[in-house]
Amino acid sequence: MRLVAELETLVLRQEDVRRIFEIVGRDHVMTCLIERLSDGLGELGRGECPNSPPRAGFTRGAGARGVIDVMPHYLPGSGLTVKTISYNPNGRREANLPTVLGSIARIDEASGAPIAICDAVLLTAVRTGAASAIASRLFALPKSRTVGVVGAGAQAVTQLHGLSLLFDIDTVLVHDVSPVNAKSLKQRASFIDCEFKTVSPHELLASSDIIFTATSVVPGAGPVIPDVEHLPHLHINSIGADEVGKTELPVSMLRRAYVCVDHPEQARTEGESQQLEPEEIGLPLSYFCAHPEDASKHMNSLTVFDSTGFAWEDHIAMDVFLELARDIGLGEKVSIVHCPEDVHNPYDLSSW
Amino acid sequence: MRLVAELETLVLRQEDVRRIFEIVGRDHVMTCLIERLSDGLGELGRGECPNSPPRAGFTRGAGARGVIDVMPHYLPGSGLTVKTISYNPNGRREANLPTVLGSIARIDEASGAPIAICDAVLLTAVRTGAASAIASRLFALPKSRTVGVVGAGAQAVTQLHGLSLLFDIDTVLVHDVSPVNAKSLKQRASFIDCEFKTVSPHELLASSDIIFTATSVVPGAGPVIPDVEHLPHLHINSIGADEVGKTELPVSMLRRAYVCVDHPEQARTEGESQQLEPEEIGLPLSYFCAHPEDASKHMNSLTVFDSTGFAWEDHIAMDVFLELARDIGLGEKVSIVHCPEDVHNPYDLSSW
Hints:
2 copies of one chain form a homodimer. By secondary structure, the first copy, chain A, is α/β, with parallel strands linked by helices. Chain A has 2 domains: 9-122 and 312-334, ornithine cyclodeaminase, domain 1; 128-310, Rossmann fold (3-Layer(aba) Sandwich). Helices cover 36% and strands 20% of the residues of chain A. In chain A, the strands form 2 sheets. Chain A has a 7-stranded mixed beta sheet. In chain A, strands 9-8-7-10-11-13-12 form a 7-stranded parallel beta sheet, sandwiched between helices. In chain A, strand 2 and strand 3 (67-75) form a beta hairpin. In chain A, helix 2 packs across helix 12. At the A-B interface, helix 1, strand 3, strand 4, helix 3 and strand 5 of A face helix 1, strand 3, strand 4, helix 3 and strand 5 of B.
């Protein structure tokens, strides 16, 4: 007897994901993500689960910018998660599309059937914000009040959101090559009660306790901030890594900093760590989630979280989205996989 | 202005795929696949399109057999196809599941959105049958009448189907470790008008013009046929490659044969070519689809098609399924991807 339920696919439509946020609230989703991701990275750091392979990226042809990545993670006992995600910095201009856009599927371990599929635009933005919040909790001073934003696009909203749940932010200093983006961040992040100021990179560096860089800088055209005077305890989350050759930070700052990566292999291929020798790169975030006391030693000096985003983070984020959807009763189940009653006869169409 | 249609996902349910086969007939689908795959492999052989990366396989943990593979193919101008496919030789016994089970998605090149998702059980079986038919048209004698089947499971049905459309088969000789499977193939392949006989491996080798091996032999437990007397012009399609260490043919036969592979890297990792040195392996099928005259030289001697199944084949097969579904008007469009009106604000949920 076959358990048909195992083969059905739960499709979470965009309105289902909206309902999750409407019902439980964005703070609840982000808080869940921060705690679950911190726990999951800790498991990885203690060697209790396998790491993700580095993602396979396909570079767009014919002069179009950006990549489409395939990011699989297999957790024995839980299943396979596969995210496909496009980074297309021209997408907004050409078709009013988010720069980072994709979807994510969960594959049942025993059957191989896709048991769920949902959006990865909001999921990626939230999990990336959660990862930076976790790194900041480990490496930034707890009394950090001023956050510097370099690149005020979509990712900036969830980066600020994650930080706002762990730090008592009173000032956000914003720099973007587009003055319109820099200015509109205040409205888009209006759920954070603090002062927003558009400033020069020099002013931003001089006063920020925590900075994040989330830009679409062209490969080879970085860095996006100068190496100028900054607070001694500055912590930077550099999250713009999505293309080989794309970097956001001055190598001189990286060399002075303790650099913590999320996924060592990916970081050396597409992160800030492309600019460093192996011995200049610190331990991964998963290590510090397992041993937080080792991170606090670095709190009073310059630290960088080199965030490339990896598939284990997506697996955990999808768990959270699916659990919230299940608790509320959202999504539509459809039968996609062809499973004939006589499994030895693919042309047995009669019994469907 | 955004073209919303580009972001919607066409979900082909299992009943939609059934309708395709009911309306156009299995022969039409298989014939389309054979011709489109032959053309597509020819393009690859002429260097007109990129090859697929080798698939990433995740081996099931905790003593469970089999793998779950992720198979991406990116064709500039067409999009990214990602198939996730499980090989689980115990699935049938444990849960009456097909041994090979999965699904396939097409990602829009510009947006990164999943524009279609459908079954990969029937698709994989049909495209694998089509690939073997193409190899047999190139390497087997056109007057081949007797086909030997080693492993009479699900794949045997579509292997026979593909051959039956290109050769005037009068006799099918069947061997399977399960006598029940061997016997039931006649019913499952009853659309082919010929005689079916259950025979020993020796009898099968002695009389077959074309043989295919499609078994679930345990890695290291092969070969599944002995190296005994066979017709001088014998052509073998070995299609059981899905695990490292799993092989079906005696290495002595492989060394005597001209071995044509589908995907050289995969063949050396998980195909019959694991048993060979690089210099013992012939040119890939794509070369011969571009230069069929070079294949016919081998028609009167022993040839082997080492079929591992690769993602370019799946990309083409999905094209065919999607075109047939579109012509008939099948499938349901759903909005999965989160695309806020203000693309710089992932929390802009109001405008959905």
